[in-house]
Amino acid sequence: MKYWFRKRRGLFSRDLGWGWIPISIEGWICTFVLLILIILSAYDSKLYDESKINVIRFLISLIILLVLFTALAVQKTRPEKKER
């Protein structure tokens, strides 16, 4: 199985932060597609109108996109090496 991401090590390590880092071209493509989908969702929700329903629609679509991306990243993440 080809892994697309690796897990970050945490806040107080050289690898600052939490989440996943793309380690293959597929991981980078997924990350850029997520970014494009978030931008398109903001445009489609007409956030520039600043109505409450549009903001709620954008937040719901943002949550859905992030949950789907997280599920994909967890599935395609390289397992951590166990320290001795």
Characteristics of this structure?
single chain; 84 residues; mainly alpha; three-stranded mixed β-sheet; 10% strand
Overall description:
The protein is mainly α and 84 residues long. It has one domain. Helices cover 52% and strands 10% of the residues. Strands 2-1-3 form a three-stranded mixed β-sheet. Helix 1 (25-44) packs antiparallel against helix 2 (52-75). The radius of gyration is 16 Å and the shape is elongated. The two termini are 25 Å apart. The model has no long low-confidence stretch (mean pLDDT 81).
Beta strands, count: 3
The chain-level mean pLDDT equals 81
Describe the largest sheet: 3 strands, mixed
Query: Helical residue percent?
Result: 40-55%
Question: Alpha-carbon distance between the termini?
Answer: 25 Å
- The helix/strand order is EEHHE
Determine the number of helices (DSSP H or I, runs of at least 4 residues): 2
Low-confidence stretches: none
Question: Can you lay out the helices and strands and say which pair or pack?
Answer:
Layout: E1 5-7, E2 20-22, H1 25-44, H2 52-75, E3 77-78
Parallel strand pairs: 1-3
Antiparallel strand pairs: 1-2
Structure, briefly:
The protein has helices spanning 25-44, 52-75; strands at 5-7, 20-22, 77-78.
